[in-house]
Amino acid sequence: MLNALLPALFLGASAVAGNPASAEFSYTQAELATHSGAAAVYQRVVTAAERVCADENRHSAMAATAARICVTDTVERTITQIAAPNLTQIHAARSVSPDGREAVVLAANGS
Prior knowledge:
Elements: E1 2-7, H1 13-16, E2 22-27, H2 29-32, H3 35-56, H4 63-82, H5 85-94
Antiparallel strand pairs: 1-2
Helix pairs in contact: 3-4, 3-5
C-alpha cells in the first residue's frame, strides 16, 4: 500500500504563519490499474483536499472561494504527482475550473 501526502494550496491563516497543512491518504497500484479502483482513489483525493482546504481557509475573508480554488489546485497537483493513466482520465472527465465553470477541452485538427 502506498501512502501519499496531499499538499494544499495555503491561502488561510496558518499558511501566513508558515505552518502549512497536509493530509495523508493510501492507495495501491492495483487500485490504480482499474477504472473503478482509480475512481475510488480519486474520491479519496477530493475528500482529503476538501477537508484540508476548508480547514486552511476558514479564516479567509472569502473562505468558500478560497477553499474551492485550493481544492481544484490541490487535486490537480496530486493527480499529476501520482501520474496514473486511469486516475488522470477520471480527473480530466470531472475537472471543473476554479470559478465553477466546467472545464472545456479544445482540440485542433491540422491539415
